[in-house]
Amino acid sequence: MGVTDLFDPDGIAVIGASKTPGKLGNDAMTNIHSYEGDVYPVNPSSSGEVYGYEFVESVHEVDADLALCCVPSPIVPEVLEDCGEAGIGAAVIFAGGFAEVDEEGQERQDEIVRIGDEYDMTILGPNTAGYCIPHLDLYGSFVPEIRDVETGNVALLTQSAGVGITSAFQLDREEYGVSAMFGLGNRANTGFAELVPVLDDDPLTDAIALHIEGTEDIDKVLKVCREAETPIVAYKAGSEELSDFVESHTSAPIQARETYEDALAGEGVVFVSSVTELIDASRAIADTPIPAGQNVGLVTAQAGPGIIIADELNECGAVLPELDEETQERVDDLLQGITYTENPVDTGRPLPEFGQVIDAVARDDNVDIVIVYEIYEDSLGYPVDELETLAEEIDKPIIFTVAGPESFEEERLQMEEAGIPTFQAPERGASAVAALIELVADNV
Amino acid sequence: MGVTDLFDPDGIAVIGASKTPGKLGNDAMTNIHSYEGDVYPVNPSSSGEVYGYEFVESVHEVDADLALCCVPSPIVPEVLEDCGEAGIGAAVIFAGGFAEVDEEGQERQDEIVRIGDEYDMTILGPNTAGYCIPHLDLYGSFVPEIRDVETGNVALLTQSAGVGITSAFQLDREEYGVSAMFGLGNRANTGFAELVPVLDDDPLTDAIALHIEGTEDIDKVLKVCREAETPIVAYKAGSEELSDFVESHTSAPIQARETYEDALAGEGVVFVSSVTELIDASRAIADTPIPAGQNVGLVTAQAGPGIIIADELNECGAVLPELDEETQERVDDLLQGITYTENPVDTGRPLPEFGQVIDAVARDDNVDIVIVYEIYEDSLGYPVDELETLAEEIDKPIIFTVAGPESFEEERLQMEEAGIPTFQAPERGASAVAALIELVADNV
Hints:
The structure is a homodimer. Chain A has 15 helices and 19 strands. Chain A has about 450 residues and is an alpha/beta fold. Chain A has a 7-stranded mixed beta sheet with strand order 9-8-11-10-12-13-14, with helices on both faces. Chain A has a 5-stranded parallel beta sheet with strand order 2-1-5-6-7, with helices on both faces. In chain A, strands 16-15-17-18-19 form a 5-stranded parallel beta sheet, with helices on both faces. The model of chain A has no long low-confidence stretch (mean pLDDT about 95). The interface between A and B is large, with 69 and 70 residues.
């Protein structure tokens, strides 16, 4: 019973399931019908089948751990009571019309919290687009295309399901996935405090990305963030100027970004300020070892983007150390004094020796994190082999910032396979390094 | 003669052309060989043909306006002298090894400036990856895949050709193009001051994107920026902390970002701080009318991303005005009190009425700029028809921020066709609006 029933439910009831395309109860069935466990469309007004599953009249006729409630808010309490009686351990409530709207909605939400308590039932929502766990083929959401989202090693835990879905689609567009995505909505009885520890224990999750608008149980939330061993990246949205709009969304209390930042300073939580940074920081942290320090080696095949990266690194407090004498000799031998060979090392153009230059810098004891920039040229490609070897042999983050025509895609993905995360704009690579720097500052 | 010979040359000489793949003189031939004018591979040590063009021994045997010089720096002065004698009006010098390296390089650069003066010859570079003008099929660069870059209405004028190429590829990845891309390199005699006015006159260019590291002729640069009628977006990279590295790149003097910002405040130049912002701001400005004021109407189908956009708008000084009474009634009728219907208008999910809601807000006299956010759902799609009508009938910028699976791509591009620029992350849409706000602040 409880939160684990969201993760690997033995049987799923879809309450308010529908045969009519465009209806929420149909969209939810479309997403869940291929789940490998039993699926039960529940609707007393429907008969026949949907996706080969026979409609049942009541949740009492099914053997399920999880209910997806596709019914409007006024009948949610009744439906939830039925779920409790039927022994269902977790329910997702999509409908809005609760604490985020008015006094009546608040009472309705109090009522479902009470029912949740009575039956020890985990409630995701209300007022959420749901969640997904791709590796279980479990898409508990009405968003039609959510099934495109594939498995990855970043968990998204977002107060707004819209932000979770946006982030998941943004990851998907660059061929990444999620270990899980939870849209929390109104957090009737399940929020950050309940789900961070579960995701912290999830072996598929290497970083947890949080999107926070405001939390009633802030002390509990801060506590689980402090205690988590999995690195956390947090994006606090919803400034005080927007109080009405924020409250209308998930009935969140108004809290300043600084409240979270100050409370979690030095606690292994990295703060970011956009969706793209949330994703990029999480990927960088999930895919690379925790660096031993803040010394960055920058190798670039083009000076201009290299300067942009160096600018950003300076701003985030990274150190670009002098290279060790031996490294410098190796680099100078490789580059024959072409351009700027001190750190940052600028090769002036991709060269056959580019991989060896990265190798030299990455193996330097003065360097804790490596960032590379290279515009792809088909005739030379990316130094995939050298990077594969490096990723195996050294225990340091290597961040690869890429640009080029679409033909680079294959080699970009080979680098990802080798554990070298790639970023498709100079500032994105730099902000990934900034996240690693912030993480290590916490750990020093 | 002069700078116009870069734009529509009658005959192009490729000096140092080569049959050997991987050589700069071969890469340059690969890019230029399909240019519709005459192309002359010049190389006294080669015979036979390359891409069907017969090698010639000397530039004196050709009838060309433009020379692409694919030779190493020590022989550049000699080659350039030949070009001048042969009546060539413009030359691109790819080689590094000039003012950016040492005293000897500085002397070499002085020499080519002298030759340029003597023959009234425009010199792009040295130390540049070149330029391209896709609508002329003119790719004067050695970067092999530059030919992927297609025609658009933003001109990129970048001190670092690497940044220009990166930006062009980033545009290309999202199906945009450029009217022209110039990598300036060392700016022997052709830089921002010379090219901004030409691009300002170019009918295909609706916005000029500048990437500046530092300029010797800053007063002239500021003057042409002030005088340009085409909106300019500028990204000043290369902070003072990086002086050595910046100087080693294109021998740029060290100048603070503020020097440019202060001098161009109120002059219709929008400043940004990343490559992605440079591209996005330029696209937004190029594709939409100049707004009449700073009042923004925000329509979102998902509250969470809407809050993120509203946060960013607040920070950039945008005003989210109350809607006119009539507009508010129309919106409330359409949404039936579902969610937050004041500006920002939150529809809670994409609805069949979504396009009508946008229409109501966009036609409100209190609103100067509209930004929309919608996660795509196949069953409803994007309100393409309504937006096409709106773009025709009202003279206001409409910015559409999109998210979704790849299946949205077709409708996204339909919106682009209709003159509604799209942005693929909440903060990217918001920063596009911020650019419009900054532009109108200058014009008020």
